[in-house]
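Worked Example 4.2. Consider the chain below.
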Amino acid sequence: MITTAIEIEAKVDELSDVLDIDIRHLQESLSRLNELRQLVIKRDEASLAQLLASIQNEVDNYKSNESKRQSIRKYLANALGCSTKQMTLSRLEALLPVEKKYLITERKAILRSLTEKLRKEHLSTALLLSDCARFNNLLLENLFELGRTSDITYNSNGTSKRQADIPFVNLRF
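Applying the procedure from the previous section yields the following C-alpha cells:
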C-alpha cells in the first residue's frame, strides 16, 4: 500500500505539470483570440493565414499533453478504485494529503478562471465574425441589386419595361 501511495503522489506531481501546460495553453488561446480579432478588424489576410498555421501547429503539439492527462487520469482512477469518468480534480482533492491537495486546488482555480475568460472571449470573437459576415452579405446584396429594380413599368403598348440604364459600377474617378 505504501508503494501505491508513493506512486499516486508521483502521478499527482505529473498531473500538476500537465495542468501547468493546460494553463499556459489557455493563456495562449486567450491571446490568440485577441490577435484574431485585431487582424480581422485590420483585414490583414497574410497575418491571419500565419495565425491559422501557428494554431494548427500548436493543436498538434497539444495533443500529446491531452493524451498524457488522460493516461494519468486512468491510472489514478484505477489506483483509487473509481471509474475514469468519476476521476475529477475535485474528487482527487478530497483524497490527497494537504500538501498535494494545495497543488491541485490552486491549478483548478486558475483553470476555472481562464476557462471562463476563454468562454467570454470566444463569444466576443464569434459575435465579431458574425457581424462581419452580416455586413459582407449586406454589401454584396446592395451591390448586386444596384443594377436591378423591382419596379416594372408598362408602356402604352402594354409591354413591360425594366429600368436598365442604371450603371452597376461607376468607373469615373
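The first strand starts at residue 153 and ends at 154. The chain has four helices and two strands. Compare this with Example 4.1 before moving on.
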